Amino acid sequence: MAQLVIKQRTKRFSGIGQYGTLFAILALIAVFGVTNDQFLMYANFSDIIKSVSIVSLLALGVTFSLIVGGFDLSVGSTASLATIGAASSLVLHSQELLVALLVPLVLGMLVGLLNALVTIKFRLPDLLATLAIMYVINGVQLTYTKGFSIYDNMPIEGGTAPGRFIPSFLFIGQGSIGPIPFVAILMILFFAGAHLFLTYSKTGREFYYVGSNVEAARRSGIAVTRIKLYAYVLSGLFAAIGGIILASRIGTGQVSAGAPLLMDAVAAAYIGYAVFGTGRPNVVGTLIGAILIGILLNGLTMWDVPYYAQDIVKGAILIAALGLSYIQKKQLT
Amino acid sequence: MLRLERVTKRYGDVTVLDDVTFTLRRGEVHGLLGLNGAGKSTLVKLLSGAIIPTSGTIELDEAAITLTPAEAIRLGIITVSQEVDDALYLDLPVYENVVPWQTIERIRPRELKRRAITYLERVGLEIDVTEPVGRFPLSVKQRILIARALASDATYLLLDEPTAALSTDDAASLLALLQSLAEEGVGIFLITHRSDELSRVTTTSTFLRDGRIAYEGPFQPLSDEDIHAYLSGAGMTTAVEKATPGTDERIRAELTLPTFGTELSLTAYKGEVVGIGGVTGSGKTELIEALFGLSGVKQRITLDGKPLNIREPRQAVQSGFALVPEERRKQGLFLDDSIERNVLAIEGKANAVTRVLASLRVKYDQVGQPVRELSGGNQQKIVLSKWLLEDRDVYLLDEPTKGVDVTAKRDIYELVTRLAKDGKTVIFTSSEPNELELIANRTLWLDRGRWQQKGGV
To answer: pTM (2 decimals)?
Structure first.
């Protein structure tokens, strides 16, 4: 008679995936700290956190799209659009804080709906469809501004712009509560919220089911289409929040300001795959990935590595992160 | 009691189930037997709500029901398909795969893990529930699915060839588990090709033939002749006239079988039809693929006495081999391309296409029609056609009659005999002993990568 009970032990992922990212962060801090005395200063860390907060929110958006098995490449231009939306409300239309927040948020969600439309309804491949939307949205914000940035006292027809970046708006990106930058608090809140939602709510778990096996999810009665729609709308929403912080931080509505953030965000999300050795996109991993990239770029800047050469490093990081996530995926099948 | 009452299922003008009445009772292990294309998978699909009957009713405890996949699960009718991976979330931890999503009210990981462990205990699994499912072997994955079924209060469990790819020990312990579930009152519906399993665990068995029920009753008293007669009917056995094989050796192969790592040798003569028998997972496909240079394994092949070095399919084709792969839609056809382009995919002249199609009795409107529109049997004939325009020496046919209706099957048998009579060598794999008996001059049986004495049903 064959044995009835199967006892099975599996080996954990190798250490490289498990704590590698955390070690990498510590190693980077050590290297940059030793080679540059400015690096470990409070002002520099505050700088890092401010730039990380923007990238991390875009990366959070990407993470939501990745969790459901999609891919949102439009987060960069969505952030640009949000920046312009906020700046326009404030400077060109003299609106108050609430409007300056609502306009970009609604724009972000609309982009998310558009992404959902092309990927779910028209069934276009996520990567290419959102790439196309990225171009469309970038074109929209360029067309609206005719290619010019929006700033306080900018010349317009018949004088100068009526409104300005109001202090309450600027506080979001520049203010701090005690020694802690306000953006750090915002970032932690959003990430904690997203993490709790994805881990402990029923709808949140459905995101993972859909991304893991669409057919199995459909057959267990999950509204697959709706979950994907949510994911893209959330992605657009978080990209827009990133755009708001960006506008507030630089105090102008710069055109295409979000475009260079896309690569950082994608890389952060993919590094996140590896952080806990789970081999799937996760919010906490993404945050750690964004911090890693933020520290790296900051340190490279302090080493006087020119911004154009930094792209080489970013690309290399993305390849490494993709490679790592691919290895982990392979162990699962 | 789960019951099909006079159910008929048609696709277009092809009838796959014809006026079938069938009952599955709680507490029984009910076996289902039938050749390829007899309607087994259609029957399972009807019961799992994947398709709806053309006519007739499905009843649960005497009340007519309309099944959808979700409704079937709600009523406790759970299917464990052969493609276990399709039903699992491979990268998610075990406990999230076991506890059915519908029954979760609040997500408390500790509570979910505890529930998962109780269900896993019932199916005899002691594993780390936080590990992703993808890291476990098939035998464990199957039990995880059964545990999930129990967690959704399964009253009927439908299993499609669950032991096909398992080792003897794993298969035996799975069957013991199914029996103990039946004793707890679950109705088990078991599709299998293995007669030893049927005689050991089933209380009742149903035989399907050409979409009709050929036999219903206990399996144990049946003799091999009875089984043969019920499965293939009397008419089929006399239909094909075998060719006489020549005495010249055509092919001699020695190779290491991928996946299994076993050493196999095979010899075949001119004009011979060699049957390779075995259940799913016995190594048939691996053997065919190795011969055709698809798996990059070490192999020594001589063709008509000449040594060959086949490392990739292109070389196999150049040496005179033809392959009809097991999964024709995925591996054998350019589905969106026209019939003509598919037939001409290897070589040949356009004016010969219609002649070849006619010789195989392919039913089509025009040669420009996409292959996707054809029925399974006609699609298979297209796969065959592309190798008929130019002369080949060795035809490797991997389960060529799988999912093919009875008439198309007969046409394929005729073609095989014709090829053999022309002096070609045909290597024909199948899981049906009757089919191999019908067309092969000699049949070799594979079991888990090794040659066997005759086994299976």
So the answer is: 0.78
